[in-house]
Amino acid sequence: MSWTEKQIAQAAADLFEAEAAGRQIGLLSRRQDGFDMESAYAVQKALVDLKIATGRRPVGWKIGLTSKAMQDALKIDTPDSGVLFDDMLSDDGTEIAAGYFIAPRIEAEIAFVLDADLSGNPSRQDVLAATGHVTPALEILDTRIVRRDPETGDLRTVLDTIADNAANAGLVLGAERHAPDAFDLRWVGSIVARDDVVEETGLGAGVLNDPVEGIVWLAQRLAAQGDRLRAGDIVLSGSFIRPIEAPPGSRFSADFGPFGRLSCQFEQE
User: Fold this and answer.
1) Structure pTM?
2) Domains of the chain (ranges plus CATH)?
3) In the list 127, 172, 203, 225, which could disulfide-bond 215, CB 3.0-4.6 Å?
C-alpha cells in the first residue's frame, strides 16, 4: 500500500526545509511501510509544488540512472527523472560559493534544448525534430537525504533519490549549440578532470545505448501521467560517467572534444 497524502506532504516539507537549511534528513525508505515508486514520485511532485510556490520556475527535466552499471548497482531496470529549475542554471566557468550545496557531485551529460512539444510515444526521429540544439553539460548532484543510515548502515535507495527530485541541484551548460543530427551522439564523449587529474571518461552510448532514447523514455513516462515535454525545456539526457565527489576548492573541466568544453569551480570554505 502506497503512502497517504499526509505522509507524502510531510516528506516533501522535510526535504524542502532540509535544502533551505543545508542539512540532510534520514532515509525516507525507513520511515513507514508502503514507500514505493508511486509514493516516491508523489513526494517529488509535492516538493516541486512547494518550490514553485516560492517563485522558482521549472525549466526542464533531468534523467538519471540511465547506465547499465548504475541500474545493476541499485537493482532496478528503469531510469528516473526530476525537475530542473531556473535557479539551478549556470554558465561555463561558474564559481560556486562554499556551502551552497550539501554534498555535491559532478556528472557529464548531453543536454537537449527543445523548440517543439513532445508527447505520447515519440520515435527517435520525433525527438531529433523537436530538438532545437544539443550542448555539453555538467550536472551538479546533491542529496538532502543521508547516503547511509548511521544506526543500521542501510543505504539510500532509488526511491529516496526519486523523492529528493532525483538528487538534482544544478547544471552548467556549455556555450556551444549543435544541431541534434550534427554528431552521432552515441560517440560524443567527455574527459572529466578534477584539479587537472582525469577522473572519468565516457561515451554517449552509455546512456541507454543512445542519449536520444533517454528523451524517448521521459516523453513516454510523462505521457503516462498526462504530461508532456514542452518547447523551451532543457533536458539532461543522463550521465555517461560515474558521479565525482566535489569537495570545497575543487575545479572541474570536461573536454567533449569537437562537441565543446566547459568547467566549474567550487570555492574553498
Assistant:
1) 0.95
2) 57-266 (3.90.850.10)
3) 127
